[in-house]
Amino acid sequence: MSGLRTNPAVSVVMAAYNGAALIGETLDSLWAQIFTDFEVIVVDDCSTDDTLAVLRACPDPRLRVIAADRNVGPVRSRNRAFAEARGRYIAGLDQDDICLPNRLERQVAYLDAHPDIALVAASAAILEDGAVTSSIKSPVTTPRLVEWLLWIENPLVWSTVMLRRDRVSPAVEFTRPDYLYAEDFDLYHRMARRGGIARIDDPLLLYRKHGAGASQLYAETMSSNAMRVLAESYAAEGFDDAEVGAKLIIEHLMRAVPVYDRATFERLGRTIGALQAHFIATREVDAESLRMIRWESALRWGRVVRAGLKAGTIGLMAAMAVRPDHLGLGYSSMEELLGSRLIGGARTAVRKGRAA
Fold first, then answer.
1. Which residues contact 49 (CB under 8 A, 6 or more apart)?
2. How does DSSP classify residue 78?
C-alpha cells in the first residue's frame, strides 16, 4: 500500500526535540511495520541539533513534519500533532522508542474487534545499553485489571498506546500541559471514563531506558501531578479523603518510599482495601479479573511490607498484624520478611549510633 490515503487508519503522533541520534531508528521501526495504512506526524520543537534535517531527509510520503516556530515542550507539541491527525486511531510514540514489526497490526486488529475498548496499550521490553530485558509490569492482564491498576499506579507505557480519536473529548486538550510528566496518566484516566482500557500482553515495543536518572524537579513534578490525577478520580468515585488517599498511594506505591511509621502503614492498608472494595462493588468484575486484582494488589502490599521492614519503620509484628482484606503478602515468605527485618534492625542501629 502506498500510504497516501486521505484518511489513513492510524495516525502516529510524536514530539521531537534534539533526537537526531535516535529518531532515525525509531522511524525505521515504523517503515518496517506489517500494517502499512498509517501516517506519522512529527512536530519538531525547535531542536538545536540535526533532528529537523534527519526528519526532512526521510523519503517516505507517510511522514508529515511540522517545524515549530518556538519551543513549547513535548505536551503542546504532541497536541499539535494530534490536531493534524487524520486517522481514526491515534498511536503514541516517543522519539527514541522502537516499535516491533507487528505493533500497529496487532493493535488495529484489537480495536476493530473490541468496539467497547477506547484505548489499548501493549507490553514493552526494555532496551538499555544494547541489552533487552522483560518488562517489570504485570505479565498478564484483563481490561478490568488494567482499570484497577490505574487507581494505584501507571500500568501503561505511552509509546505502546493506541486509542480511538473519536473518544477524546473535544472540550479538553488531548494531553494537558498542566499535568506535565503525568499527562499520559491523566489521559488514561479520562479515556477510562469513555470506554474500556486494555493491554496486549505480548511485547510490541522496545522501550529505551537511558542511564541518566530523572532530576529531582522532574520526579517532584511528576509525583505532584500524578497525585492530582488520582485525587480527581477518587473524588469522582465519592471518596471524601481523596487527596489524602492519593498522596499515600503516590508516595508509598508509585514512588516506593517506605512507610514512615505504623500509623502510616495502617492508613495505607485501609486506603488500598477501601479502594479495592469500592472498585469491585461498582464494576462488573469477572472471576478471572477478580483473582488477578487481588493477586496483583497482594504483590504490591508485599513490597510495601518488605520496604518498611528494611527501613526499620515497622516491625515484624506490625507487618503480620496489619493485613487488610484481600491484601496478602504476595510471594513474600516468612524467610524474606525475617531477612528484611534483620536489615531494618541493622539500619536502625546505625541511625541510633550516629545520633549518639
1. 18, 19, 20, 21
2. H
Does residue 215 register a pLDDT over 50? Answer: no
DSSP-derived secondary structure letter, 290: H
Phi, psi of 337 (to 5 degrees): -65, -40
pLDDT digits (tens, 9 = 90+) for 76-110: 999 999 999 999 999 999 999 999 999 999 999 99
Strand duo 196-208 + 63-67: pairing: unpaired
For strands 117-128 and 131-133, give the pairing: antiparallel
Its CATH class, for the domain covering 10-208, is alpha beta
Cα-only R_g, the chain: 22
Q: Determine whether 160 is exposed, middle or buried from the number of CB atoms within 10 Å of its CB (0-12, 13-18, 19+).
A: buried
- Please list, in sequence order, all residues whose beta carbon lies within 8 angstroms of the beta carbon of residue 229, skipping any fewer than 6 positions away: 179, 182, 185, 186, 189
In this predicted model, what pLDDT tens digit does every residue of 148-163 receive, in sequence order? 999 999 999 999 999 9
The Cα angle at residue 234 between residues 184 and 290, in degrees rounded to 5 = 85
CB-based contact 31:101 (threshold 8 Å): no
236 pLDDT band, cuts 50/70/90, is very high
Question: Could you please report the per-residue DSSP string of 133-147?
Answer: E--SS-SS--HHHHH
Place of cell 513490597: 303
